[in-house]
Amino acid sequence: MSLTDCEREDAGASFLRDAAAVRDRLYPRRPFCSVLTFGCQQNEADSEKLRGMALEMGYQLTDSPEKADLILINTCAIREHAELKVLSIIGGYKHLREKNPELIIGVCGCMAAERHRAEQLKMRYPQVSFVLEPGELSMLASRVLTALSGKRSFLYTDPADFPHPTEGLPQKRIGGHRAWVSIMYGCNNFCTYCIVPYVRGREKSRPSEAVIAEVRELVCSGVKDITLLGQNVNSYRSDCDFADLLARLAEIPGDFLLRFMTSHPKDVSPALISVVGSCPKVAPHFHLPLQSGSDAVLKKMNRHYDTEGYLATVRALREAREGISITSDIIVGFPGETDADFEATLSLVREVGFDMIYSFIYSPRKGTPAAEYPGPVPSEVAHERMNRLLAAADESARLRALPYAGRICRVLVDSPSRDGRAGIMSGRTDTGKLVHFSTGNETVGRFASVKIERAEAFALYGTEMP
Ligand code: SAH
Ligand code: SF4
Ligand code: F3S
Q: How many angstroms separate the alpha carbon of residue 454 from the centre of ligand 2?
């Protein structure tokens, strides 16, 4: 038995045993389960496992929590706003529980791994039956069994001890021609503002064989766009490193694109840049969170790179792969951020020329070092900086989009256009840009060749070539 099979045995086998017991309890009913997802792509991927496991336990899936007998809320703890939203939704489910006393509500994901949150849910939200931390997904059936016997469970595992067993867990994918593949779990970086290492535990990489087998299977089933996921995806290390893994995946025969996120600037190796430069199946897109354009702030954030190193990486990527798009995350209002620090961020944004920026106002997270740092930035100042950053990001995106006008681009077709006009479809270029285009062929999940006629900051418009 290979290592992969052993790992498959571990998580899969123990879950399947409990799932069979849940099925026996529910038989002959096939009650409904609804899974709600907040947060990042890692949570989207975990929710596919939650759905797969729910089906295995004998539930049928519904999008409507009102109809459900089991509600699984996959939560995010990255900013206060995300947590408050979830707490308000859980609060609203009190009336559902009153209508259906057998309703089971499980709080999964990153909030479940914050000890104080789990305690709060236990004490103040009697409608919640259990918490399930992100590193213990395979325990779902065991929690549901306990809940079916009328007991609540709020066991706490220190995320530092997560074994992250997921091999062999059932999965119900909903992405069609696009798919997520988690290749590593957890994070070791401890950026001073970030809750993730505290709730997702230490880094653990899946065996390369397991990842390659999963990607091969997806390609065989017709998936065209595969995103490898990890909180720090480019620190993947098993029997090979991330650059090797990517190169091996790019050798799989078939017409598909590989994406990956999120990369940490400190771990972008020359070997990785060379794979991105030389493998056509690796998408010409690199998401590289900058966080701040001030070296003093980067140091306080514990990011382990400076602006010069960041710029050198961007230059190397652009040299290696013509037309590569570069996107980023930026935080404004980090404690102690001065006007000069923020101006340095704006100036770096202009210098790099990002295709897209996801910007966030700093949100203090209990238990992280930065939450105790002096010099909180007043909310009005943070908002004013945010608005200026958004304007710079728009301008940068517009400048990056303009040269697309007149080009012919490959577009992976996702759906009919949102405004419902006949003959207009939407999709994304290999670089990740949204395209609306007219065509006589409304088939989704295929690559189309589109002549771009007009380019705006966040959308391109064109016509499919015959
Ligand atoms: N592992 C990834 C993603 C982390 S979460 C990475 O290293 O980039 C996604 C983004 O949320 C981060 O890049 C950061 O910009 C933002 N973020 C994280 N913690 C935050 C906080 N406390 N307040 C505001 N934004 C935060
Ligand atoms: Fe958070 Fe930093 Fe880890 Fe990303 S690399 S998840 S920002 S601690
Ligand atoms: Fe949120 Fe957890 Fe992802 S905190 S951003 S769901 S890793």
A: 37
Report cis status (omega within 30 of 0) of the bond before 262. Answer: yes
Question: Where does ligand 3 bind, in terms of residues with CB under 6 Å?
Answer: 39-40, 42-43, 76-78, 109-110, 195-196, 199-200
- Output the CA 329–ligand 1 centroid distance in Å: 7
Comparing CA positions, the residue from 411, 439, 409 lying closest to residue 427 is 411
Pick the CATH number of 405-464 from 3.90.950.10, 2.40.50.140, 2.60.40.420, 3.40.50.460: 2.40.50.140
pTM for the model: 0.96
Give residue 5's pLDDT: 43
> What are 323-336's pLDDT values in tens digits?
999 999 999 999 99
Q: How far apart are CA 400 and CA 330, in angstroms?
A: 18
Q: Tens digit of pLDDT for each residue in 275-290?
A: 999 999 999 999 999 9
Tell me the CATH architecture of domain 284-403: 2-Layer Sandwich (3.30)
Residue 1, pLDDT score: 30
